[in-house]
Amino acid sequence: MAQQKAALSFDLIAKCSVSRARASTMTLPHGPVELPMFMPVATQASLKGLTPEQLESLGCRLCLNNTYHLGLKPGQATLDAVGGAHRLQSWNHNILTDSGGFQMVSLLKLAKITEEGVRFLSPHDGSPMLLTPEHSMSLQNSIGSDIMMQLDDVIATTSPDKERIVEAMHRSVRWLDRCIEAHKYPEKQNLFCIIQGGLDLELRRECVKEMVKRDTPGIAIGGLSGGEEKAKYCAVVRTCTEMLPDMKPRYVMGVGYPEDLVVSVALGADMFDCVWPTRTARFGNAVTSRGTLNLRHASYAADFSPVDEDCDCPCCRSKENGGLGVTKAYIHHLTGKETAGAHILTMHNVYYLLDLMRNARQAIIADAYPSFVKEFFGKIYKYDTAEYPIWAVDALKTVGIDLTEA
Ligand SMILES: [Zn+2]
Questions:
Q1: Sorted alphabetically, which HAMAP family does this protein's record hold (predicted)?
Q2: How far away, in angstroms, is 316 Cα from ligand 1 center?
Q3: In this structure, is residue 245 part of a structural domain?
Q4: Is the N end or the C end of the chain the one with fewer CB atoms within 10 Å?
């Protein structure tokens, strides 16, 4: 198979001597990004409540846009006229776009998948429409994203229909070939393949072999985070990373819980995205180094400590140190009444996850990832190993990290 062009360079900086964790730098058309990393999701070319400047100030250099939403509004003609999504949202850093397929299947009940593509009814006027691999590439070429995702045939991991899962895996490989064929700018936009195969490890292996042959600049593991058991999720990630080439970035789609990130990094994954940290902020939930706190709870009404004492985000940082000095009590007071509370928490939550991955990277470079992982779980569960989630303990053991040993 012909070698694919790549618009990125990938430098592997360090590997953990115990687990499969890696630290790397990926240089994309809009600058370098450090892996492992969390990518916040800016659905409509905006992160709910945050301006591009705020997102930039948190250290984000790669965010996600949804092709489905941008394709509907402002639409392809406007994207072409303005010169792509970077210009549309005044974001001079990197953008990753999904294919649009997952959004359709999950948002539109009437979506129907055929070999040609995803058929659905326009949410605007109900007219029949079709998203093909070619159309997805054309839209993502108009968006101008630094990383584009192939259109894949997504099916819930929890589906009992084995035959359908096999079909979806093979179709995803065929659709990747059509995407490669249709991609107009491989010299300036990177197309990532997506490994499918449900929870069947043999199918996943078969898919990895086929996808790796196509030599795309990066590789995603898809179809997870759909309510499957965490132990099964970990088995899939571990099975895939075992076979993946060292010198390409590995993106596990739809993952955003801090514990999942820390474990998945140990299993050899580099990139993650999820709407959860921003969505949950709107319900008053703060993601912190001591676990997720629901600041709507009455117990926070007179708690004048920062949202997270160990956080250096603009909200948690004290006034003396140039921050906003926001307290739990203040968020408690605002939440549900004022959108400002949601904005502040969104900022904190995004910063927390970006920073968690920055710290993980530092630990990998210092070859201290196992102790980083122990400290991370220790803080959340007050070092009570009996409270640690069994799936995490078991998954980490498979890569040489024993959470229960001091
Ligand atoms: Zn903070």
A1: Q_tRNA_Tgt
A2: 4
A3: yes
A4: C
Q: How far apart are CA 372 and CA 262, in angstroms?
A: 9
CATH number of the domain within which 136 lies? 3.20.20.105
Q: Which residues contact 360 (CB under 8 A, 6 or more apart)?
A: 21, 36, 261, 262, 265, 369, 372
Q: Output the known binding site for Zn(2+).
A: 311, 313, 316, 348
Burial class (CB in 10 A: 0-12, 13-18, 19+), 108: middle
Residue 308: Cβ within 10 Å count = 22
Out of 98, 146, 153, 270, which one is annotated catalytic?
98
Domain boundary among 218, 250, 274: 274
Q: Is residue 90 part of a domain?
A: yes
Per-residue pLDDT band at 47 (split at 50, 70, 90)? low
pLDDT band at 108 (very low <50, low <70, confident <90, very high): low
Residues 114 and 168 in one domain: yes
Give dist(CA 70, CA 165) in Å, integer: 29
Percentage with pLDDT > 90 across the chain: 79
- How far does the centroid of ligand 1 lie from the alpha carbon of residue 8, in Å? 32
Based on the residue annotation, tell me whether 98 is a catalytic residue of this protein: yes
Q: Which domain holds residue 309?
A: 281-367
Residues 266, 287 within the same domain: no
Q: Rounded mean pLDDT of 174-201?
A: 97
Cα 314 to middle of ligand 1, angstroms? 7
- CA–chain centroid gap for 196, Å, is 16
The pairing of strands 112-113 and 118-121 is antiparallel
β 62-65/285-288 pair status: unpaired
Residue 392 belongs to a domain: no
- What are the binding residues for substrate? 98-102, 152, 196, 223
Q: Using the mean position of ligand 1's atoms as its centre, give its distance from the Cα of residue 13 in Å.
A: 28
Domains in the chain: how many in total? 2
